[in-house]
Design brief:
The protein is mainly α. The chain contains 20 helices and no strands. The longest helix has 35 residues. The protein is globular, with a radius of gyration of 23 Å.
Length: 500
């Protein structure tokens, strides 16, 4: 568990730095500098390219997570695994380029009326797809080498710094909007170059091949995992972007722009889970290889409790400051007030995902990984249906509510599967205690008088809420992991205080 804790702390640090940078980008700068249509363009470009790039990986990331322990041999250059990854990436890129060319007329037809600006930049999808395919492959490879932090740094911090620089150039009129879009695309693409250079410098980059290692049995396993990996990964990206794509065609880029900004605030609840679950993925795959069910059950229980505590604090903190959020957006805040319930429902769906911890990872790395694909396809179906039913009635709030309902159903299915198949049940009285502390803390924070200055109000309200929530969590020893980390921080503080 030590490597999970160590990499989780580092990854979470980078994630929170990314939160600050992302907030500066999505919450402050873009709404002030770009129109809602222009914000929507950036969002839809990333949404479509992510969707297509996931297919372009041809499901090999699932193979990297599940089967790399069998290839892992530094002296033998990991049996040529990286060379195989690159070959798969090239094949995937050629296939996705063909798909973009074939489906371009359909994309144009779907968006020409309400999202004409997107049509102007549709060809740039090919560039984004290329770099996103290879970043995904190389990041998974680096994570398999038990270094998940580097990819987190690049995605959460480095990329956002580049985007902020691009925004600055546009704001000060050094570049026009067209050039800004190109800089934005370059900011995303640069990550692939960076991680490639890092792998070379760390001497993890080798084009050595060893096709003899690929036995018939291993190739069958790779083919099976890749097939379900394509379905699973494709489903995941559809899940992450279906609301954006459907809103763009049903409401237009303006609504998508409002939704994307408000979506970001709600998504902040789940950001800490990224770094934690990324390393959990690798450790769980190794545990399945060794058939260590006790370790897996322990990971499941601890991930649920830890993520619930973190997620609940962020959720109640977000909702306690909901009115301040639109003040933070500045003079254009009123343009985004229609997304208030988007923030609530996306935050709630993030919390639902947090409280169920590593359930998806445990299923996805087990011998029953195929059922995870079935669950993901069910989620895609639910999202499409709920969006079709709720967007016409509730607009952008309907898309967010659909996400919350769909994720609740998905996680219930995962929970029931692990309970009946492996008798794993992570929930106990500690969760009730956390829920009571969270509800009490939120209620007390709402009776505080509202300050005339929204910055002061946010700081005071958030500080008191954190004290009200964290103090009983610590003294009641709800989570041993959180208490252990708190003790480390307190010791560090005491030591620094003693040093003159």
């Amino acid at each position: 568990m030590g490597i999970i804790v160590n990499q989780s702390v580092k990854g979470t640090l980078f994630t929170y730095i990314g939160v600050v940078l992302g907030f500066a980008t999505t919450g402050i700068l873009l709404p002030r500098i770009c129109s809602t249509d222009e914000v929507g363009l950036l969002k839809i470009l990333v949404a479509y390219s992510s969707l297509i790039a996931t297919f372009g990986t041809l499901g090999i990331n699932g193979v990297t997570i599940r089967l790399f322990p069998y290839f892992n041999n530094e002296e033998k250059k990991h049996q040529g695994y990286l060379a195989n990854l690159i070959l798969v990436g090239i094949l995937g890129f050629l296939l996705t380029t063909l798909l973009i060319v074939l489906f371009k007329p359909l994309l144009v037809e779907l968006n020409i009326n309400k999202s004409a600006l997107f049509i102007k930049y549709i060809n740039y999808l090919i560039i984004l797809v290329f770099f996103q395919i290879f970043f995904s492959l190389l990041d998974a490879y680096y994570s398999a080498l038990l270094n998940s932090v580097h990819g987190t740094f690049l995605k959460e911090v480095f990329q956002r710094i580049l985007i902020i620089i691009s925004i600055g150039l546009y704001f000060f009129n050094y570049i026009d909007f067209h050039q800004f879009v190109l800089f934005y695309i370059a900011s995303i693409s640069t990550l692939t170059i960076y991680i490639t250079i890092t792998l070379i410098l760390k001497k993890h980059f080798s084009l050595h091949t060893n096709f003899k290692f690929l036995t018939r049995e291993l190739l069958i396993s790779i083919g099976s995992i890749s097939l379900f990996g394509i379905l699973n990964g494709f489903s995941m990206i559809i899940i992450q972007n279906v609301d954006t794509i459907m809103l763009t065609s049903m409401v237009g880029l303006g609504g998508t722009g409002v939704y994307s900004v408000c979506f970001y605030f709600g998504l902040m609840v789940s950001l800490p889970a990224r770094s934690i679950l990324k390393i959990v993925n690798i450790v769980t795959a190794q545990a399945w290889k060794e058939n260590d069910l006790n370790l897996i059950s322990k990971i499941y229980s601890k991930s649920c409790l830890t993520l619930f505590i973190i997620g609940l604090l962020l959720f109640i903190g977000l909702w306690a400051n909901i009115d301040n959020i639109f003040h933070i957006l500045g003079p254009f805040g009123s343009d985004y007030e229609s997304g208030k319930w988007v923030i609530f429902f996306i935050g709630l769906s993030s919390l639902i995902d947090m409280i169920t911890g590593a359930n998806g990872i445990i299923i996805g790395t087990s011998k029953f990984y195929k059922i995870q694909t079935v669950f993901m396809l069910i989620l895609v179906f639910l999202l499409v249906i709920t969006n079709l039913l709720l967007i016409p009635v509730l607009g952008i709030s309907g898309a967010a509510l659909g996400s919350a309902i769909s994720l609740a159903v998905l996680n219930l299915l995962r929970y029931l599967f692990l309970y009946f198949k492996y008798n794993m049940q992570p929930f106990d009285k500690q969760f009730v205690i956390v829920a009571i502390i969270g509800a009490s803390s939120y209620f007390l924070s709402t009776i505080l008088p509202v300050q005339s200055n929204y910055v002061a109000d946010t700081i005071i309200r958030s500080t008191i809420l954190i004290i009200l929530f964290c103090t009983p969590i610590y003294y009641l020893k709800v989570s041993s992991d959180i208490n252990a980390k708190a003790e480390d921080l307190l010791k560090m503080f005491r030591f620094n205080k003693m040093v003159p």
